[in-house]
Amino acid sequence: MRYAYGQFDGHDFPTPDKLFGLDQLMQFILQHGDQAMRAIEHAMKDGEDGPTQDLLDQLLKDGMFDKDGRGRLRLTPRAVSRMQMKALNEVFSNLQKGTRDGHEKLTPGAGSERTDGNRPYAFGDPVADIDMHASLRNAMQRTASLIHPQPDANTQHDSNAPSSNKLGRIDFNERDFEIHQREGTTSVSTVVLIDLSGSMMRYHRYLSAKKVALALLAMVRQRFPNDTIDFVGFYSGAKRIPEVALPLVMPKPVTIFDHEVRLKCPIDQIDQAPQHFTNLHLGLQMARRILRTRAGENKQVFIITDGQPTAHVEGNFVHLIYPPDDRSTIATLKEAAICAREDIRLASFALIEDYWGMDWVGFIDQLTRLTRGVAFYTSSGELAQCVMESYLSGRRKKAFLGR
After folding, report:
1. Where a domain ends, among 154, 183, 212?
2. How large is the average pLDDT for residues 187-196?
3. Across 145-260, where does the E strand assignment appear?
């Protein structure tokens, strides 16, 4: 064993409870998912005295953990909400100033922020948005001739005639009123597709994706109560991710290391097949079905992925193919085109930090051109900024961030 010595800086050495506090525990759960929960459960069963055990007991009393009918430890909605808020704070602390806080739409209407310029008031417009300064100016200009009449040599002025001239009164006409223009806001239904294939384990991409998902969920709950958001994980198959299970979701471990794989599996038995492939085709199908049940005026799908499809559906079978095959690409692009025809906006977030060859991003380019969507090519560290900017602004242009 080797020892390293250094000069004491005068600060107290951290105690175990400071080294492993609540925030560190939540981070541990995000990093390791179900394995972390099993480790915590094992630590609670051991019952050894110490700061860590005291923390776990306190979390159980505070309602951050509870147990299911089989005695298994699980996260409570309160714990998930805390994770969401912490992720949201982290994301917005790194966002650039000036990021818009609303879904823009081109037509003027009530709600959101004021824009430059006014327009004539129309029946039904909110009275609170009337520009009183502009309306008063219009009324004064219109009645100026009555307040200060021009003398006419051919006209005999009757001093006894009642007039607003003497009273100095300003009469408003409906044509005098102007109203502030605003950016209209609209409700949005979103499905976030999270790649759970084996490669997402590299560089902790899955951790960045989970934090972004938690932050996005917290923001929608707080600021856009009319919006809906759903999460779907896609791997060799695809499944919906409940809100309470989002912190525990993990990429699928790689179980086949052959240079070439050609497998065919019934879709109802996909859980028995190797799980680490990328079935974006099935993920898009599930997202489209979910959005059909949502009432948002606008519908969109966010795709967080680090590679091109290596699986697709044909009839009642799932085909798992590696290296990537054109059949999977074509099937996925066809499904994306169906989404576009149903007015579903697609935004793709391609995680690219460890690829020396960028051939696979050609698939993202094809998908973006075909659906007239938006593509972001970014590193995991910049993922949060890309997702939040796309959600808040709804812009439809490419952005190249990261390296």
Report:
1. 183
2. 94
3. 178-184, 188-195, 228-234, 238-240
The answer on 190 and 259 residing in a single domain is yes
User: What's the Cα-to-Cα distance from 160 to each of 154, 165, 360, rounded to whole Å?
Assistant: 18, 12, 90
User: What is the predicted pLDDT for the residue at 39?
Assistant: 87
> Which residue shows structure tokens 């004021």?
114
Mapping DSSP to helix (H, G, I), strand (E, B) and coil, where does residue 377 land? Answer: strand
- The mean pLDDT value for 328-343 works out to 97
In this structure, are 66 and 179 located in the same domain? no
Buried b (16+ CB within 10 A) or exposed e, 78-110: ebbbbbbebbbeebeeeeeeeeeebbebeeeee
**Integer Cα distance of 22 and 28 in angstroms:** 10
Parent domain of 350: 94-104+186-400
Give phi and psi for 368, each to the nearest 5: -65, -45
- Average of per-residue pLDDT values in the chain: 81
Higher pLDDT, 330 or 82: 330
pLDDT tens profile 14-33: 555 554 577 888 888 999 99
Q: In angstroms, how far is the first alpha carbon of the chain from the final one? A: 40
DSSP assignments along 68-91, one per residue: -TTS-EEE-HHHHHHHHHHHHHHH
CA separation for the pair 287, 268 (Å, rounded): 18
Same domain, 261 and 218: yes
Q: Say whether pLDDT at 98 is over 60.
A: no
159 belongs to a structural domain: no
**Cβ of 153: how many Cβ atoms within 10 Å?**
5
| DSSP code string of 28-47 | HHHHHTHHHHHHHHHHHHH-
Tell me what the mean pLDDT of segment 333-337 comes to. 97
Q: From edge to edge, which strands make up the β-sheet containing 261-266?
A: 261-266, 317-322, 311-314
Asked if residues 385 and 213 have their Cβ atoms less than 8 Å apart, the reply is no
- If asked whether residues 336 and 361 sit together in one domain, one would say yes
Judgement on whether residues 209 and 126 belong to the same structural domain of the protein: no
Q: Is residue 347 part of a domain?
A: yes
In a domain, 326, yes or no: yes
Q: pLDDT at position 42, please?
A: 82
Percentage of the chain surpassing pLDDT 70?
A: 76
Question: Which percentage of the chain shows pLDDT scores above 90?
Answer: 41
Per-residue tokens: 250: 């993990």
pLDDT tens-digit series, residues 369-391: 999 999 998 888 889 888 988 88
Tokens (6 digits) for 15 = 């105690």
SS3 263: strand
